[in-house]
Specification:
Organism: Pseudorhodoferax soli
EC number: 1.1.1.37
Number of strands: 14
Number of domains: 2
Order of helices and strands: EHEHEHEHEHEHEEEEEHHHHEEEH
Distance between the termini: 45 Å
CATH architecture of the largest domain: Alpha-Beta Complex
Strand order of the largest sheet: 3-2-1-4-5-6
CATH topology of the largest domain: L-2-Hydroxyisocaproate Dehydrogenase, Chain A, domain 2
Pfam family, one: Ldh_1_N
Helix content: 40-55%
CATH superfamily of the largest domain: Lactate dehydrogenase/glycoside hydrolase, family 4, C-terminal
Strand content: 15-25%
Number of helices: 11
Bound molecules: nicotinamide-adenine-dinucleotide, (2S)-2-hydroxybutanedioic acid
CATH class of the largest domain: Alpha Beta
Keywords: NAD, Oxidoreductase, Tricarboxylic acid cycle
Structural class: alpha/beta
GO molecular function: L-malate dehydrogenase (NAD+) activity
């Protein structure tokens, strides 16, 4: 017997990431090739955005995806999030060349108060929320704080693009297949302060840190390359990353929903105080996923270099949180 359809809300559905994301959700790459989906797409009420959304829906129709059993277009989060099981909050303004992330908080923060409230009012009580729109950690924090009737653990921020970027850099450095990398993580904020940490990583059971054995490369090449990759792509493309961001969103939701078989992945999740990160800070952590739940990997040793990096990214997140107090 075929599975009951699930409802997937996507905001910013007519944007760049939306265009790279929706077709993959509809083809079953996110929730499985046996899981029918209903897409509930949200765009701003602006005529041009709604018209563009109609065009995207025409293309979705034209794919005749067997798993796509419904498509809805919305301009109000209160209808877009009705009964939704999954919510991918992408819609918000991206950075342009030379723009700082902090500037985005001012323009994007308010979106997530309204959307958190709407999720609180109308979404499924088990909704899994992924915030992609930047600054992703703090926007996820705002949405979580605006949805007091939903479990805190349902709100997550996207650090998976950073995780994938780090894996790709390590594969290039070691000359090994990216698929063989295990136990990699990215701590903290989706910003240049993030700490991509390969101290525990292995390839085919061998330690990556031992294979590379070069702390100067780690500090002076690897960390800045991963941390500033978003800006490098904006500089090269004139637009922020889209296909790789959509790919990371698919990875994040698929792993959360379907499990990781013990493999570590990175998710931005509300802290419960582990590793000295204060409760509720939306922080990138190593997790494993099973039965639709993520579980933090606990008990890892934090050396002095790592502690310094973690403190720095935490301080940035706390100052972002301070900056949005008025919205909560
Ligand atoms: P885009 O400008 O191409 O598309 C954004 C879309 O969102 C637009 O169509 C816009 O009309 C819509 N939108 C704006 N406000 C909205 C609202 N309140 N409700 C619904 N829709 C709304 O941008 P993009 O390239 O798709 O990027 C979207 C966001 O994702 C940006 O904030 C970008 O910085 C962020 N991003 C995050 C990561 C990450 O790793 N977390 C990676 C890449 C991009
Ligand atoms: C990215 O990491 O590619 C995005 O968050 C875009 C940005 O502003 O860096």
């Amino acid at each position: 017997m075929s599975k009951k359809p699930v409802r997937v809300a996507v905001t910013g559905a007519a944007g760049q990431i939306g265009y790279a994301l929706l077709f993959r959700i509809a083809s079953g790459e996110m929730l499985g090739k046996d899981q029918p989906v209903i897409l509930q797409l949200l765009e701003i009420p602006d005529e041009k955005a709604q018209k563009a959304l109609k065009g995207v829906i025409m293309e979705l129709d034209d794919c005749a995806f067997p798993l796509l059993v419904g498509i809805e277009a919305h301009s109000d989060p209160m209808t877009a999030f009705k009964d939704t099981d999954y919510a991918l909050l992408v819609g918000s303004r991206p950075r342009g060349p030379g723009m700082e992330r902090a500037e985005l908080l001012a323009v994007n923060g308010a979106i997530f108060t309204a959307q958190g409230k709407a999720l609180n009012a109308v979404a499924s009580r088990n909704v899994k929320v992924l915030v992609v729109g930047n600054p992703a950690n703090t926007n996820a924090y705002i949405a979580m704080k605006s949805a007091p009737d939903l479990p805190r653990k349902n709100f997550t921020a996207m650090l998976r693009l950073d995780h994938n970027r780090a894996a790709s850099q390590l594969a290039a450095k070691t000359g090994k297949p990216v698929a063989d990398i295990e136990k990699l993580t990215v701590w903290g904020n989706h910003s240049p302060t993030m700490y991509a940490d390969y101290r525990f990583a292995t390839i085919g059971g061998e330690s990556v840190a031992k294979m590379i054995n070069d702390q100067v490369w780690n500090a002076d090449t690897f960390l800045p390359t991963v941390g500033k990759r978003g800006a490098a792509i904006i500089e090269a493309r004139g637009l922020s990353s889209a296909a790789s961001a959509a790919n990371a969103a698919i990875d994040h939701m698929r792993d959360w929903a379907l499990g990781t078989n013990g493999k570590w992945v990175t998710m931005g999740i509300p802290s419960d105080g582990q590793y000295g990160i204060p409760k509720d800070v939306m922080f990138g952590f190593p997790v494993t996923c099973e039965n639709g739940e993520y579980k933090l990997v606990e008990g890892l040793e934090i050396d002095a270099f790592s502690q310094e990096r973690i403190d720095k990214t935490l301080a940035e997140l706390q100052s972002e949180q301070d900056g949005v107090k008025h919205l909560l």
